[in-house]
């Protein structure tokens, strides 16, 4: 019982006791009955149980959660609304994050949600996530220019929504404003790997606002892109300050390296020592506990997803192309740097980034035989073996199957995507493009139109740069062509996953659903290939990141094995059906009973002057014969002058003018006079004693024949 309720009851009790002293017995009982009614109406505050029918939103009919999505929903609930889905591309992270939020809302632990996504993916999340799977409402928050052109994107005029979708950049500029305007207490962040840099503004913003909201649900296919500690950076961003781990401590505690060789130490004398190659992890059990506090890892599932058939296509360089290649290689890189690339060893990330930036011209030359530094020649595409081979494969694939749809990806615009585009135009083959907004003529509208045309089959080829590596859903793709490698392995994986989507190629039997993935490599006749070296380094980095994921995944699987309910399918998201209304039964007609003859009134007993001991003995004998207990505690504010029997009946004490002190002795001096009190004794009584004396009934039946059927009444019940 709360303190406020106790105070109210105490006030009622004091008020009633003051009135009892000056009122009749009938008036006293009426006051007590009213007090009982009033105090029953005053209930202690209780937890509000949310009504699923009122809360919403709900999953649309027919939408079913996968095992991983069910697990993630429980994972977020168990971890106080904070966690990250670290799943491979195309495995349903968007629906998993939405379902986890909806579950928190059903539990009464979440209100509105603000969704943070890259600007180019706002529409994708709205239409391909919220509208596709749920009955919820959403609003896409636009920039000033967008809000002027489209009033529905103005947050001031948007109105009440379940999901408010805003870009990373817009939210980063003024996070407190958007949290206040939306009233959101939950953040859903897609493509969360974008905060991996602890020095970035977005990372700093997430660390701060994460302390202001109740729930944070992240989603990423790449918890670590270049090095394992990037996963810990994501964890640090959503953890309390005291739980964060520095890179130095993480590396020292968990990273395992190969011993340094003699050549490596000699090289260090001249150009700075390169540490031994990273080979894996140590203290894996402890690392697993650290990871699974924040990340949920999902096992790769091939269900309803086309298979990936990887092919490596090597194309020889022309004589002039190879001559330029070796000349630039020698000019741009030192002997040591060339050796690092040739060996393809996994050295510290900063060192490798410096080397690859210096080798940028060599990478572009591998795509364009007539490349000139600073001025790529698009017309030379027809003379480059790699580009010619790719065009032959495009034409062959388009002619071999009527449902052919092809994605062509490059990390370069002028020395990559534009060259393919020029040859397609020359051959009269229609296509769509998805480039970064910095390119001339590229807007959100042109990019969205290209996506819709490709999905609808109006164009069968989509050319994209790195801008299309994240978030795009291009199902029914039958071939993916990668023109050049990327040092970041997850970037390669993500880009190739744009067309390998869950539910893709439904028009084909499951055994025939496959996406051919071809990676093209320019190979010189002598020396090493820069394309091949980058793929080798990326493969080693991917193996290390996969090791990290595997450690977390195994811990996740052990949890699922030990707790069967962890993967149990959830049904609470389905829209509740209307409750069945049972037909009311016809009321039973009660037969009239015969009237009861009125009882004869018993004449009041004459007052007898018994001794005190006999009085108590008489009362107790009368009570004990009824098999009950005496409901009197010796305190004035809780006294009753009823004897409560074990059979539930209540009898007033029949002896005349007996006070409560004679029923149960207390620490006050008892009067031996059962009748009138002497003047001397009355004058020494306190106010509460007088009230207590006035409370004593005179005879059995003084309250009438029905009063003793109400049961015991207590002040302060």
Automatic annotation (TrEMBL):
Residues 658-717 are annotated as: Disordered. Gene3D superfamilies: P-loop containing nucleotide triphosphate hydrolases (3.40.50.300), Tandem AAA-ATPase domain (3.40.50.10810). GO terms for molecular function: ATP binding; hydrolase activity. InterPro entries: Helicase_ATP-bd, Helicase_C-like, P-loop_NTPase, SNF2-like_sf, SNF2/RAD54-like_C, SNF2_N. Residues 386-552 form the Helicase C-terminal domain. Keywords: Hydrolase. Residues 707-717 have a biased composition (Basic and acidic residues). This is Helicase C-terminal domain-containing protein.
């Amino acid at each position: 019982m709360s303190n406020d309720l106790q105070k109210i009851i105490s006030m009622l009790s004091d008020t009633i006791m003051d009135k009892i002293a000056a009122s009749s017995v009938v008036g006293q009982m009426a006051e007590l009955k009213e007090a009982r009614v009033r105090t029953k109406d005053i209930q202690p505050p209780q937890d509000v149980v949310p009504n699923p029918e009122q809360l919403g939103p709900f999953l649309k009919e027919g939408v079913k959660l996968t095992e991983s999505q069910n697990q993630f929903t429980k994972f977020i609930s168990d971890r106080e609304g904070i966690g990250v889905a670290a799943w491979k591309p195309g495995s349903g992270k968007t629906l998993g994050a939405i379902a986890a939020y909806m579950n928190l809302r059903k539990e009464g632990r979440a209100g509105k949600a603000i969704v943070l996504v890259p600007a180019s993916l706002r529409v994708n999340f709205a239409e391909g996530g919220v509208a596709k799977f749920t009955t919820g409402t959403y609003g896409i928050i636009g920039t000033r220019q967008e809000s002027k052109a489209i009033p529905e994107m103005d947050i001031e005029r948007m109105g009440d929504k379940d999901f408010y979708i805003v870009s990373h950049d817009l939210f980063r500029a003024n996070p407190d404003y958007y949290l206040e305007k939306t009233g959101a207490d939950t953040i859903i962040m897609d493509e969360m790997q974008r905060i991996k840099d602890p020095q970035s503004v977005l990372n700093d913003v997430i660390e701060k606002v994460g302390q202001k909201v109740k729930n944070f649900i992240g989603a990423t296919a790449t918890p670590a892109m270049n090095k394992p500690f990037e996963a810990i950076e994501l964890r640090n961003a959503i953890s309390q300050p005291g739980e964060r781990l520095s890179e130095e401590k993480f590396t020292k505690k968990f990273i395992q390296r190969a011993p340094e060789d003699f050549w490596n130490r000699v090289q260090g004398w001249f150009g700075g020592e390169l540490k031994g190659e990273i080979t894996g992890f140590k203290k894996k059990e402890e690392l697993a506990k650290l990871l699974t506090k924040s990340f949920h890892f999902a096992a790769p599932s091939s269900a309803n997803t086309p298979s990936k058939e990887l092919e490596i296509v090597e194309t020889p360089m022309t004589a002039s192309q190879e001559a330029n290649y070796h000349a630039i290689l020698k000019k741009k890189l030192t002997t040591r740097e060339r050796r690092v690339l040739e060996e393809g060893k996994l050295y510290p990330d900063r060192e490798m980034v410096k080397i690859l930036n210096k080798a940028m011209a060599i990478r572009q030359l591998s795509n364009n035989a007539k490349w000139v530094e600073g001025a790529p020649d698009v017309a030379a595409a027809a003379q480059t073996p790699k580009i010619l081979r790719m065009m032959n494969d495009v034409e062959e694939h388009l002619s071999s199957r009527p449902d052919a749809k092809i994605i062509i990806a490059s990390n370069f615009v002028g020395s990559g995507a534009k060259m393919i585009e020029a040859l397609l135009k020359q051959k009269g083959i229609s296509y769509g493009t998805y480039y970064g907004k910095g390119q001339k003529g590229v807007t959100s509208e042109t990019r969205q139109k290209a996506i819709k045309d490709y999905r609808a089959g109006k164009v069968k080829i989509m050319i994209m740069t790195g801008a299309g590596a994240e978030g795009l859903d291009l199902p029914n793709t039958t071939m993916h062509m990668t023109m050049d490698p990327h040092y970041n392995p997850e970037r390669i994986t993500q880009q190739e996953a744009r067309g390998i989507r869950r539910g893709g190629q439904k028009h084909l039997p499951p055994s025939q659903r496959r996406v051919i993935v071809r990676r093209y490599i320019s190979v010189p006749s002598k020396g090493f290939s820069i394309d091949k070296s980058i793929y080798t380094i990326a493969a080693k980095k991917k193996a290390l990141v996969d090791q990290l994921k595997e450690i977390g995944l195994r811990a996740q699987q052990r949890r699922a094995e030990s707790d069967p309910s962890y993967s149990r399918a959830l049904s609470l998201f389905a829209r509740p059906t209307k409750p069945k209304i049972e037909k009311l039964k016809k009321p039973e007609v009660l037969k009239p009973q015969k009237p009861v003859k009125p009882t004869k009134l018993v004449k009041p007993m004459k007052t007898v002057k018994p001794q005190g001991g006999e009085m108590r003995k008489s009362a107790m004998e009368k009570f004990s014969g009824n098999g009950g207990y005496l409901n009197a505690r010796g305190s004035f504010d809780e006294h009753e002058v009823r004897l409560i029997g074990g059979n539930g009946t209540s009898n007033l004490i029949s002896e005349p003018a007996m006070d409560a002190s004679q029923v149960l002795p207390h620490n006050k001096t008892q009067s031996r006079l059962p009748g009138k009190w002497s003047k001397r004794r009355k004058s020494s009584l306190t106010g509460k004693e007088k009230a207590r004396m006035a409370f004593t009934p005179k005879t059995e039946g003084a309250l009438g024949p029905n009063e003793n059927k109400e049961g015991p009444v207590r002040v302060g019940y």
